Amino acid sequence: MSIPFTLIDATPDSYSRFIDQLRARLTFGTTSQGIRVLPPSRQVGNNARFIYVDLTNYDGVTVTIGIDVVNAYVMGYEQGEQNYPLQTLPDDPAPVELLFPNTRSAGELPFTGHYASLGEYARRMQNEQPNRRDQQALNRLSNPMRQNIGLGPSSLHSAIDMLERAATPLSQAGAILVIIQMVSEAARYPYIERQVRESIQTGNSFLPDPRMLSLENNWSNLSRQIMGATRAGRESFSTSVSLDDAYQSHGAPPLVVNSVRDSFIQDMEIALLLHDRGDDRGTDQGNDPENCTPGPSGSGIGRRGGKKPRRQHE
Q1: Coiled-coil ranges per the record (predicted)?
Q2: Which residues contact 135 (CB under 8 A, 6 or more apart)?
Q3: How far is CA 98 from each of CA 105, 121, 165, 223, 224, rounded to the nearest angstrom?
Q4: Roughly what angle, to the nearest 10 degrees, separates helices 132-141 and 169-179?
Q5: Catalytic residue at 193?
Q6: Are the C-beta atoms of 155 and 149 separated by less than 8 Å?
Q7: Which end of the chain is more exposed for a tag (fewer CB within 10 A), N or C?
Q8: Residues 6+ apart with CB under 8 A from 151
Q9: Distance of alpha carbon 183 from alpha carbon 49, whole angstroms
Q10: Which region among 79-88, 125-134, 280-289, 293-302 has the lowest average model confidence (pLDDT)?
C-alpha cells in the first residue's frame, strides 16, 4: 500500500503523521544510538526495494512517488498510465525496471535525483533557447537551485501539478526537487519536518536556510560517523561534522558535531541513518552529488505486482 498525503484540509499534524509512517516503512527495526537505520541493499530483495507515497494537491491531482528503501532516494514518479523514472548512477544502480511495473514508461528523465545532477541539467538548459513554457521554470531553477526554490504547501501543490502535466523535463526537475526536500529530507531530519509544519500552519512558503542545506549535504557523513563510533564502542567521531547555523549570514558560528553524546544526536535531530556499508560513496539525494529524497522498507510493496511492462530507454 502507498502512504498517502493530501494537501486538502492538511494540517501540521497530518503532515507529521505522514512523515512518521514513511520513517517506519523505510526501516526494518535496526537502530544505532536509538536512530532508525535504513537496510543495506544486500538485505533487501528486489520485490521489497521500493515503497510508494501518493501526494495529492488542492485540486485533487495525485502523483505516486517511488522511493528506494536503501537510501530514501526519490527514484521516479507515476501519474495516470505513465511513469517517469529518474536516471540511476552507473556505479550504484537500483532495479528501476521494477519501480512501476503496472504502467508504461515514458522514458528516463535526463537527470538523477541528486542535487548536482538537477543543477547541471538546469545550467545546460540555461545555455539553450527555452520556450516560453520553460522560462518561468528556468528563473526558479537558476544555480544554486535549492536556495532559489520555495518550499511549503503552495510549492508542493505546484510540484504535483507540474509532474501531472509533464510539460518539460525542466519543470519536472524543479518539481522533484521540491518533493525530495519535503518528503525524503523531512523524513531524515526533524528540523526540516518542523520547517514544513510551520509553513502548513501559516500557509507561507520558505526558502531553505543554511542549516537545512548543510543537513542535506551531510546526511551520509553523519550516518557514517554515528554508526562507525557506535560499532567501535566509542563516543567520539573519527572526523567532526560541521553544520551551518540557520543564521550563518549574520555571522553565527557553525555547530560542530563530534560525538554521539552531542545534543544533536541525543535530541534525535537526525531520524534516519544510511547504513554504513564501508563502500558508501556519500551520495546524498539532495547533496553534491545529490539525491532526495526517504527510502522505504519491505513492508511497503504490495500493490506493485503483476507483469513487468516494456521500458523505453534514453
Answers
A1: none
A2: none
A3: 11, 25, 23, 28, 29
A4: 30
A5: no
A6: yes
A7: C
A8: 178, 181, 182, 195, 196, 199, 205, 206, 207, 208
A9: 18
A10: 293-302
For the chain, how are helix, strand and coil distributed in percent, rounded to 5? 40, 15, 40
* Predicted TM-score (pTM) of this structure: 0.84
Q: Which helix (H) or strand (E) holds 170?
A: helix 169-179
Task: Say which residue the cell 505546484 belongs to.
Answer: 158
Q: DSSP per residue over 115-130, as a string?
A: HHHHHHHHHHHHTS--
Where do the structural domains in the chain lie, given as residue ranges?
A: 1-304
pLDDT digits (tens, 9 = 90+) for 36-72: 999 999 999 988 999 999 999 999 999 999 999 999 9
- In CATH terms, the superfamily for domain 1-304 is Ricin (A subunit), domain 1 (3.40.420.10)
Q: How many Å separate Cα 292 from the centre of its chain?
A: 3
| Pairwise CA distance, residues 34 & 32, whole Å | 5
The C-alpha cell 518528503 sits at: 183
Cell numbers representing residue 67 in the block: 522511493
